[in-house]
Specification:
Blueprint: E1 6-9, H1 13-25, E2 31-34, H2 37-47, E3 51-55, H3 63-70, E4 78-82, H4 87-95, E5 100-103, H5 108-127, E6 134-136, E7 139-142, E8 147-150, E9 153-155, H6 159-170, H7 178-185, H8 194-208, E10 218-221, E11 225-228
Parallel strand pairs: 1-2, 1-3, 3-4, 4-5
Antiparallel strand pairs: 6-7, 7-8, 8-9, 10-11
Helix pairs in contact: 1-5, 2-3, 6-8, 7-8
């Protein structure tokens, strides 16, 4: 039996039941459920779940606000559930700190697969025994602590943004295609991944670049992908 804590936040009991049953089938029995945003935040502080499946439309405060508040004390993966299929809604979910976005109606098996992918990445980080940091210009990336410093200031990144930056830093100076980045970070086939990767790169630039419109760290290689460089090296 898996010991992972999985938190489900949705005001529809039927959806909570469907997700719980799908997770139980795969061996996940440590399930925490909440029907509104404020209680979810309180429960999350106490229980410290390993992953959260969070509905956007809640009766008190919306899932985006819940995510923002949870991000103040937890970096656990958050998967949004929403009946909204608009691209702007997905971008907003990623911008406030979400790691994945699934639209309703959804396949319970797909949601479980996405949960497994998030837990696998989290486990990989936890089991890493490499005690090192990566320095690129003013950026210091601490893989074990999942922290990024720019000069003396800590940069707040989502789990997915941190993975992207770490991977680019570990391949500093090399061009990484969008497909390869997606397959490595998301653990899925990279076909049709352009928009997802571009959204995350844009948000990452907004956090680490002095001027996101003229990036000096994450450089776009037109038609090829991205590379991370030290702007102070010639």
């Amino acid at each position: 039996m898996n010991e992972y804590k999985i938190m489900l936040v949705d005001d529809e009991p039927d959806i909570l039941d469907v997700l719980e049953k799908a997770l139980n089938i795969e061996g996940y029995f440590n399930i925490i459920k909440s029907g509104n945003g404020l209680s979810a935040i309180s429960i999350c502080k106490e229980a410290q779940p390993d992953v959260i499946i969070l509905d956007v439309m809640l009766p008190d405060i919306d899932g985006y606000e819940v995510c923002k508040q949870i991000r103040q004390f937890s970096h656990c993966p958050i998967l949004f559930l929403s009946s909204k299929n608009d691209e702007l809604d997905k971008i907003l979910g990623l911008a406030v700190g979400g790691d994945d976005y699934v639209t309703k109606p959804f396949s319970p098996r797909e949601v479980v697969y996405r949960v497994k992918a998030q837990l696998r990445r989290a486990r990989y980080k936890h089991n890493s025994t490499n005690d090192y940091s990566i320095k690129v210009g003013e950026l210091m990336i601490d893989p074990n602590g999942c922290r990024v410093m720019k000069g003396n200031k800590e940069v707040e990144l989502t789990a997915r943004e941190f993975e992207i930056l770490q991977y680019l830093a570990e391949n500093k100076g090399r061009v990484i295609s969008r497909e390869r980045l997606y397959e490595t970070i998301w653990g899925e086939d990279g076909f049709g991944c352009d928009n997802t990767v571009m959204v995350h790169i844009r948000h990452l630039r907004e956090k680490i670049e002095d001027n996101p419109s003229i990036p000096k760290y994450i450089i776009t290689m037109k038609g090829l992908g991205y590379k991370l460089v030290n702007p102070y090296e010639k």
